[in-house]
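User: Let's play a game. I give you a shape written as tokens, and you guess the letters that built it. Ready? Here's round one.
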């Protein structure tokens, strides 16, 4: 069975791959007559579908152990900042690569990765077939560096890295940056994509809307907090000029009705990370509100350091989402982990669907059932049997 995502399932289907791209999707009986010297690979009783798109991750932190207990989001944030300072480049590199392997083995073919240690990138990129959209993390509160120096450094880094895939900017969050950095990033972002943690925790919402709470108390000792009070986190991002079609808002858990409308009007995408969401015990993600408003909602794993299972696996994220939102059709959840992610990265027609001229990024999972059951069977699959990226097979997992 072929499940193109952008079209209905195709029984006894096949996908023709030429070089790095898809040259045909359809019934095997029709495609087998395609002229030329085709090599045929019969994958057996499987569903072929686009590789999964993980719209938010921090590969750097895969091996990071953050002691949490029943601590708050603010305590977790403090702890990860402390741990990051104690790690060396080799630790980050090994951690990054282990995360990339976990994603590849579980059917992710594209990841949107927040990169705090860009020095490891060129070598790490070469050590994985994964399509990595690297967003360079910018903070600035701890370093006290001038915003324009921070931004100039990140843009220089992007141009020197010469990635084969998408690169972009990631101001970490409102509270860990300063408004001037966000304004400058918005100006510079006309030609690049930007992603940022927005309205993740109740503490962040309290800090911006009411100038109070644990996060506000901590950060008011180390940063100017004149940007806080009488604004929601989404409104603050909008005020900085960042809320546009090329923006991915990560989390967006704490929103007013007008925040949802502002996100929808801007054409920005939202990334929901079910495991991380449950780990912190946030209030229910406003999926229905955002969906009704017409927002493009993608799924991501976030980092292994903010989940109980410590396993980067987009199937687990989809399953977790299906448990919390049992009324959402499984075909729609699959789109959130494929085509919607592609749209979030501006890569529609390239990844996230099986169609002619798209990149041949596809996966196979075991399946012997009926067409009507295919989306549910894929979503709850136990095993990815094959992974292709840019037309090359990278595993058969046995
Ligand atoms: Zn994150």
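Assistant: Ready! My guess for every position:
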């Amino acid at each position: 069975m072929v499940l193109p995502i952008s079209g209905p399932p195709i029984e006894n289907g096949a996908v023709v791959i030429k070089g790095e791209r898809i040259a045909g999707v359809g019934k095997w009986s029709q495609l087998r007559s395609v002229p030329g010297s085709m090599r045929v690979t019969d994958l057996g009783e499987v569903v072929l579908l686009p590789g999964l798109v993980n719209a938010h991750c921090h590969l750097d932190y895969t091996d990071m152990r953050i002691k949490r207990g029943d601590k708050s989001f603010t305590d977790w944030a403090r702890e990860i900042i402390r741990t990051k300072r104690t790690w060396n480049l080799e630790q980050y590199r090994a951690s990054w690569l282990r995360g990339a392997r976990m994603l590849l083995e579980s059917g992710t073919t594209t990841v949107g990765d927040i990169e705090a240690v860009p020095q490891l990138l060129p070598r790490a990129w070469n050590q994985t077939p994964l399509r990595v959209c690297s967003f360079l993390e910018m903070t600035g509160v701890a370093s006290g560096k001038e915003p324009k120096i921070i931004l100039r450094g990140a843009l220089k880094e992007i141009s020197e890295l010469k990635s084969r895939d998408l690169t972009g900017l990631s101001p970490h969050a409102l509270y860990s940056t300063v408004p001037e950095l966000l304004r400058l990033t918005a100006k510079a972002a006309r030609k690049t994509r930007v992603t940022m943690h927005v309205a993740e925790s109740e503490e962040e919402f309290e800090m911006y809307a009411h100038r109070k709470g644990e996060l506000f108390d901590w950060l008011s000792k180390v940063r100017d907090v004149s940007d806080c009070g009488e604004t929601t986190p989404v409104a603050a991002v909008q005020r900085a000029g960042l809320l546009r079609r090329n923006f991915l808002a990560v989390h967006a858990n704490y929103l007013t009705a007008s925040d949802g409308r502002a996100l929808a009007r801007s054409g920005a995408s939202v990334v929901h990370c079910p495991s991380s969401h449950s780990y912190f015990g946030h209030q229910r993600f406003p999926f229905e509100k955002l969906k009704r408003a017409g927002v493009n909602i993608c799924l991501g794993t976030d980092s292994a350091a903010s989940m109980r299972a410590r396993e980067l696996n987009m199937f687990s994220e989809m399953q977790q989402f299906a448990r919390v939102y049992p009324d959402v059709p499984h075909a729609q959840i699959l789109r959130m982990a494929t085509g919607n992610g592609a749209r979030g990265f501006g890569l529609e027609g390239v990844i996230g669907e099986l169609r002619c001229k798209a990149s041949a990024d596809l996966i196979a999972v075991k399946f012997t059932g009926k067409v009507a059951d295919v989306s549910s069977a894929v979503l709850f699959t136990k095993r990815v049997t094959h992974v292709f990226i840019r037309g090359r097979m990278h595993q058969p997992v046995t």
